[in-house]
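Margin note from the TA: students keep mixing up input and output lines. Inputs are the sequences; the output is the structure of the whole complex. Example:
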Amino acid sequence: MSRTRTIKVDYLARVEGEGAMYVRVRGGRVTDVQLRIFEPPRFFEGFLRGRRFSEAPDITARICGICPVAYQMSAVQAMEDVCAVPVDPQVRALRRLLYCGEWIESHALHIYLLHAPDFLGYESAVHLAKDHPAIVERGLRLKKAGNDLMTLLGGRAVHPINVRVGGFYRVPTRRELVPVTEQLKWARDAALETARWTGTLEFPHYEQDYEFVALSHPDEYAITEGRLVSNQGLDIAVREYEEHFVEEHIPYSNALHSSLKDRGAYLVGPLARYNLNFDRLSPLAREAARAAGLGPTCRNPFQSIVVRSVEILYACDEALRLIAQYVPPERPSVEVVPRAGTGYGCTEAPRGILYHRYTVDDAGFITDAKIVPPTAQNQKAIEADLRAFVDPRIDLPEETLTWQCEQAIRNYDPCISCATHFLALRVDRE
Amino acid sequence: MADTAAPAAVKPKVAFYWCASCGGCEEAVVDLAEAILDVVGAVDIAFWPVALDFKRHDVEAMDDGALLASFVNGAIRTTEQAEMALLLRQKSQLLIAFGACAHLGGIPGLANLWDRESIFRQVYAESPSTVNPEGTLPQTRSEEDGRRLTLPGFYDTVRSLDQVVPVDYYLPGCPPTPKIIVQAVQTLLSGALPPQGMVLAPDRALCDECPRKDTRPEKLTTSEFKRPHQVLIDETTCLLAQGLLCMGPATRAGCEALCVRGNMPCSGCFGPTSRVRDHGGKALSAIASIVASNDTGEIERILAQVPDPIGTLYRYSLPSSLLRRRRREAA
Ligand code: SF4
Ligand code: SF4
């Protein structure tokens, strides 16, 4: 076979967005790997300027319909930081509860509808459903449990309403949370089963020495707040983010690539959280991880499907705990007086840390915005992975290799729609 | 699964495609959960990049009109998206704009404000005096501003789907609610097609189906608009009556007042009813008409308190508004 091959995939199916992958092989070696994102900038950071500070949560939610809560949460956190608003502990708990719903639904979507078909040799979940309806139905029902929790707190699962700077528009009574409790108990069992089942899948032997980056919190598996830490010594407050991370524009992609200053690629998301915060998972989740064959560290990105299952389990467990302890706050929200300043927010979206920074003027209008979504942060790591992954496999038949590469990309659950990033330089590209 | 009823060959073929979209509309389809498995049984999904491994050439190989319906979400901002819109139009008997972005331009359409911010500011915030009942303020002003509203580059603009190809039906919402999606699919599969160009949601104002409608005042007695972050919002009284800017009077019904039920003012994602050309303009005039004053100065004073009028009144509809159209004509 020819020693010069070019593998091109023009549409990456089953990733949430538009992207293409390009791998160049010369003389039997991989010489170039490019993940192209051609969904162009959608100017969110640009048009956030001039909007009210209070609108950032609802507007930025539309960057990603798969993880809108993450956008709302990072945005409210940043705005509450600007305005120095104290958050009621029960409001904080409710936000965490809402976020658990998003983790459950987003992970279930990825595991069952996007990722599992790869391992079981099916083209898609629709094909998988023909042979294994029970599996797909469990996935959909699990997703629905997450959706229903979000709907209960936010009116709907896609772009929930209700989150506002200072609190919520409306908070539920204890009674209102009862029906979802039963469903979450079912979901917890289903998540246990999911972890068991994904643990039996066959994984290619493939480990990488990543720098993992995630939020970390002393008392809980970090979702809504924490310090930014890594397994290579990073330990900073969220507001120091831009002193340590840089973003560069890569000519072949419309998304910006993030890297750690002086160190380069890093990985965010379930694998990073798991490795950095394993001991803060609930006992049940830790046990399920062990039973599925995972130790406290996991460096095989293909096993991220197991880690996601463990995180669903954790989210169900945590949601049940939060509901049991819930006492409605005295008021759904506190008054917020806008003031000039800069605020920072960072939370754990299902795919990894999502950073927001806003500058607001004294009348409450946004004058500057910066948003760094998880997929942009993982892009460099995905490319490095592909390079390492393809090298020993270049003699595989074209179709097999292409398919395996697509699969390798899907390990990251890349939400390409949110990797897209405004960049002024790109404006007259077309 | 329920695909024993009819041989695969006679199942109608449908496609889903996304353009400049957040993925929420796709998610809304997936979230029909059990219902979606039935739909999957009743139709043959011929193209759906987010979920299925079909590629563009599979669509290109189809006969014209081979697809019964294509559901396209997201706005149009790239050549690629425009090409796909054209291709799907050619291959489909029915093209459906799915969700606020395809319908009206949506939130990504606010990008059309980029670097013309000051002009819009001037148009809206600083000249409330040109408000009139038909809501033609943006039109007038942009005519006056003529050249300055000219766009620097075609693809620098976000367009709604029907600004690129003819659209048969629209499904409103950001995202459309399960109820209206299911109703629309049933309608389309039934073969009893509604008049072309219809928005597949009730053609009346949201206030009509709002649980608080009985508390809506004839006249707005408040002399100022409050901002949601300043007040504790009562959970049963009309939001306008509380001095909060709710888009209900100018917005199409169909969501069953989802936001208001969550104690949040409507931001207008279903777009206007069929009698209204310009959603934001209609909202302004609707509000002006219930302000408890006949004194234009007073009306202006109250309306001038609407912060960020474009982001508020045209949150989802800027590309398809008169503002946008005027600008294109001027270009
Ligand atoms: S209409 Fe709303 S949910 Fe649908 S793609 Fe646009 S932003 Fe997302
Ligand atoms: S209340 Fe308004 S913004 Fe909310 S879903 Fe309905 S139409 Fe959309």
